[in-house]
């Protein structure tokens, strides 16, 4: 009896295994879905009547603005704020680990990633840590967000609205910088929700930051941004208390009040005002800056003093062969430090010898103790103005903005400052 039951069971099992499964996966074949996704992306890219504005943030925090026009024949025409003449190259869409946009022939985009310094000035073997293959992160009708597959650089494509929109794309960051620089002081204030914030605006590096006090502790959030029209759009959202900021829109300067007006992505009004002191000052930074120069014995500045919002107000970058201002807190074997002007192969035979003093409240002040010679007549006002600013009455706050980046800000009025890194 048991043997008969076993035969019946095996026979039923065999019949069941012979039945054809007529069901299909609910979501369809994976390869087919990927193919359809890639086709949809290509249709979207090629279907933009006026093309796309592209905003790149490399892993080394270099920003660039592009204009792209894509065809359905895998050709793209692009230009950039650093190479404004349009050039044509090819692109592909491919399913790697994620749907990916590949710029597969050398193009304007490749320049910023080129590992040969003579090509575009990047680091040997690395360029500016950019990419030319980008995975899709998200897409809406007008905005596509991508991430580099190797260096994780960010690329945001925004659908252009008109020929005029395209023609102003490369001018918009300069126009925004001109607006933001109308605020004359280093320190700036705004109220976000119910929090008083110190606002950090870096038009040169396109960085926006907010600092606020939470339970007695100073907290800082910041992000790089890109500029589209009169909007400042963040690559990363900033969370400030209960508020999240992803963009500032309608940025303008009100000459009557001296404020910058804008609205956030939530529609809340935001006013940015001048201030002459930090929200909270770390009195330990000045001594740390002097004791630990970025390059062992010195720190570098590439733009000289900013005065009343004007970067390089004295024109150090116009000195022939100028590369950097090098600040030595202390010259070996001497009781003084020095401000030297590096001209690519040697220091200029000029610049002040200065002695720093740190006060009990953490501010640096300087007195002059000689000089390294007299500057040529043509650049003498530049050297004199720079020297005099170091000797300002009241000295400087020292603000650490990154691991090895320090800003010296005039205590008297916060209307002049210099960055060492």
From TrEMBL:
Which InterPro entries is this protein grouped with?
DUF4302 (IPR025396)
Organism this protein belongs to? Pedobacter ginsenosidimutans
Query: What is the protein's given name?
Result: DUF4302 domain-containing protein
Domain of life of the native organism: Bacteria
One Pfam annotation reads DUF4302
PROSITE patterns attached to this UniProt entry? PROKAR_LIPOPROTEIN
């Amino acid at each position: 009896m048991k043997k008969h039951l076993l035969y019946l069971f095996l026979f039923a099992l065999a019949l069941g295994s012979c039945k054809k499964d007529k069901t299909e996966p609910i979501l369809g074949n994976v390869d087919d879905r990927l193919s359809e996704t890639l086709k949809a992306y290509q249709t979207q890219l090629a279907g933009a009547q006026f093309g796309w504005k592209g905003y790149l943030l490399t892993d080394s925090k270099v920003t660039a603005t592009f204009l792209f026009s894509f065809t359905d024949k895998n050709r793209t025409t692009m230009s950039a704020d650093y190479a404004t003449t349009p050039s044509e190259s090819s692109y592909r869409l491919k399913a790697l680990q994620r749907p990916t946009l590949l710029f597969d022939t050398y193009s304007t985009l490749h320049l910023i990633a080129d590992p040969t310094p003579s090509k575009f000035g990047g680091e040997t073997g690395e360029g500016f840590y950019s990419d030319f293959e980008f995975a899709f992160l998200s897409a809406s009708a007008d905005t596509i967000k991508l991430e580099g597959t190797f260096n994780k650089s960010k690329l945001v494509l925004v659908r252009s609205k008109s020929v005029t929109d395209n023609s102003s794309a490369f001018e918009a960051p300069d126009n925004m910088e001109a607006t933001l620089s109308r605020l004359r002081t280093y320190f700036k204030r705004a109220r976000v929700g119910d929090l008083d914030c110190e606002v950090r605006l870096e038009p040169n590096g396109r960085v926006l930051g907010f600092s606020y006090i939470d339970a007695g502790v100073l907290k800082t959030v910041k992000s790089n941004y890109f500029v589209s029209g009169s909007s400042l759009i963040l690559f990363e959202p900033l969370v400030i208390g209960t508020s999240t900021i992803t963009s500032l829109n309608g940025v303008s300067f009100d000459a009557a009040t001296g404020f910058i007006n804008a609205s956030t992505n939530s529609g809340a009004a935001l006013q940015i005002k001048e201030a002459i002191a930090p929200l909270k000052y770390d009195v330990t930074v000045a001594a740390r800056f002097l004791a630990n120069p970025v390059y062992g014995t010195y720190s570098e500045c590439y733009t000289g003093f900013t005065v009343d919002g004007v970067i390089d107000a004295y024109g150090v970058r116009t000195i022939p062969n100028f590369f950097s201002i090098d600040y030595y807190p202390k010259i070996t074997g001497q009781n003084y430090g020095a401000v030297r002007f590096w001209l690519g192969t040697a220091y200029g035979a000029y610049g002040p010898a200065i002695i720093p003093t740190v006060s009990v409240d953490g501010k640096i002040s300087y007195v002059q103790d000689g000089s390294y010679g007299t500057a040529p007549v043509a650049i003498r006002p530049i050297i004199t103005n720079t020297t005099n600013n170091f000797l300002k009455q009241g000295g400087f706050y020292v603000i650490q903005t990154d691991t090895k980046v320090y800003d010296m800000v005039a205590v008297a009025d916060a209307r002049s400052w210099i960055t060492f890194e």
